[in-house]
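Design request, tokens follow.
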């Protein structure tokens, strides 16, 4: 269980870095939109992190990270 929590924390830190650096910008936009919809900041980060993990998995299969797919999925998250 500890390793699972470590992995979760690591991915959340990636999301926090994306938000802090506004790179990619869609991460910050999505975070702001989700918190405006009523999500607590941690919940919004978890939703973003879940998409990031799925995109990371796809990149392991294809060998490249699809920024466009990541952006499109973040635009749709509710």
């Amino acid at each position: 269980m500890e390793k699972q929590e470590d992995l979760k924390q690591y991915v959340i830190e990636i999301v926090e870095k994306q938000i802090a650096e506004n790179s990619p910008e869609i991460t910050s936009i999505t975070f702001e939109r989700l918190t405006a919809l009523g999500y607590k900041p941690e919940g919004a980060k978890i939703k973003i992190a879940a998409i990031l993990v799925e995109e990371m998995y796809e990149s392991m299969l294809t060998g490249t990270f699809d920024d466009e797919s990541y952006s499109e999925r973040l635009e749709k998250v509710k």
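Comment from the thread starter after seeing the answer: thanks! Helices lie at 2-21, 25-36, 41-62, 67-76.
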